[in-house]
Amino acid sequence: MNRETTPDSTATVMVYCHCPLESDTRRLAAELAGSIRQLYLQQQASGEPFAASIWLQGDLGAGKTTLAREILQSLGVKGRIKSPTYALVEEYRVGKVAAAGGLISDLPLIHLDLYRLAEPAELEYIGVPEILAGALALIEWPQQGEGWLPPADLLIRIEDQSGGRMFILQAQSKTGEKLTSSLSSCF
User: Would you tell me which of 44, 59, 104, 167 could form a disulfide with 17, CB atoms 3.0–4.6 Å apart?
Assistant: First the structure.
């Protein structure tokens, strides 16, 4: 893992993860899910509301949906996880899942794919601001909804490189810093 601290106040931590294999992407997703779970449990224990917005950026086919699917599965979502390309929004709830380090209870997990969004204002029409309140949001093509989405806590840029994918994780808030701080390794 390559971790870099920058003086920019909007992005204090950047982590670079090279994932040559799909199994490496699954491992990264599992580590992110562990960080999400840990932060959720800490905030739940202290009575703080939980919400996190993770923006996924990259070209078509870069691996945004794959990463989102792997994170959701690592958080305990069972069954088929559909790409929300046509529906725009898919919502999942893990119910009560005993997990290493604690119990996640009824955390709303929202997966958005805004590639086909015609106008950003559509997000309000379909109730996205209300849906995202108190949820973990994984948002593909977030630039399509800019101005109508909560700011990113964590921006993940995915670049196709010969020999795999490069995941560039850029914290955009204190929540984003907490999500990246416990990543144990990147490849």
Answer: 167
**DSSP one-letter string for 119-132:** -TTHHHHTTHHHHH
Structural domains in the chain? 2-181 (3.40.50.300)
Record the pTM.
Answer: 0.88
Reported confidence tier of residue 7, pLDDT bands at 50, 70, 90: very low
Neighbours of 21 (CB within 10 A): 12
- The whole-angstrom separation of Cα 135 and Cα 79 is 20
Q: How many CB atoms lie within 10 A of CB 146?
A: 11
Exposure string of 60-88, with b = 16+ CB inside 10 Å and e = fewer, is eebbbbbbbbbbbbbbbbeeebebbeeeb
φ, ψ for residue 131, nearest 5 deg? -60, -40
Nearest to 150 by CA among 50, 37, 75: 50
| C-alpha atoms less than 13 angstroms from C-alpha of 122 in its C-beta half-sphere | 14
Residue 89 has pLDDT above 80, yes or no: yes
8 A C-beta contact, residue 10 and residue 173: no
Stretch 53-73: mean pLDDT, rounded? 94
